[in-house]
């Protein structure tokens, strides 16, 4: 099952490419660029795992960032911004 990363050269991406101090942010822009048809390699693996095309174990084996992929798998494919998104059990005050 081939998985690929897709980057579309938007104005923001072009700015990041042109500024060597900012190129490290390109992956973040790709991960947030679904509107433009972008996706990271790990997002491709996530979609295949969610669709049952590959197992979660295979996705984890090939992931660029296994820790983040594990969090996304636990959050049902959504990018978790906090631990409360991973555990639906309410925390007692």
Describe the structure concisely for a colleague.
By secondary structure, the protein is mainly α. The protein has one domain (11-79).
How many strands, which pairing sense, and closed or not: the largest β-sheet?
none
Beta-strand residue percentage: under 5%
- Helix content, binned percent: 40-55%
Oligomer: single chain
Tell me how many strands there are: 0
Low-confidence stretches: none
Q: Which word captures the global form?
A: elongated
Question: Mean pLDDT across all residues, rounded?
Answer: 87
**How many structural domains in the coordinates?**
1
List the secondary-structure elements in sequence, H or E. HHHHH
Structural class computed from helices and strand pairing: mainly alpha
Count every helix, treating DSSP H or I runs of 4 or more residues as helices. 5
Radius of gyration: 15 Å
Distance between the termini: 46 Å
Descriptive account of the structure:
The structure is a single chain. This protein is mainly alpha-helical and 93 residues long. It has one domain. It is 43% helix and 0% strand. The chain contains 5 helices and no strands. The longest helix has 10 residues, at 41-50. The chain starts with 10 loop residues before the first helix and ends in a 19-residue tail after the last helix.
What layout of secondary structure does this protein have?
Elements: H1 11-18, H2 26-31, H3 41-50, H4 56-62, H5 66-74
Helix pairs in contact: 3-4, 3-5, 4-5
Question: Which features does this protein show?
Answer:
93 residues, mainly alpha
């Amino acid at each position: 099952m081939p998985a690929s990363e897709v980057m579309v050269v938007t104005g923001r991406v072009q700015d990041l490419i042109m500024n060597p101090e900012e190129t490290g942010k390109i992956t973040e822009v790709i991960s947030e660029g679904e509107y433009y048809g972008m996706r990271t390699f790990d997002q491709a693996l996530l979609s295949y795992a969610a669709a049952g095309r590959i197992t979660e174990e295979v996705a984890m084996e090939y992931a660029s960032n296994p820790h983040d992929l594990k969090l996304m798998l636990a959050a049902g494919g959504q990018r978790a911004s906090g631990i409360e998104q991973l555990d639906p059990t309410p925390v007692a005050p």
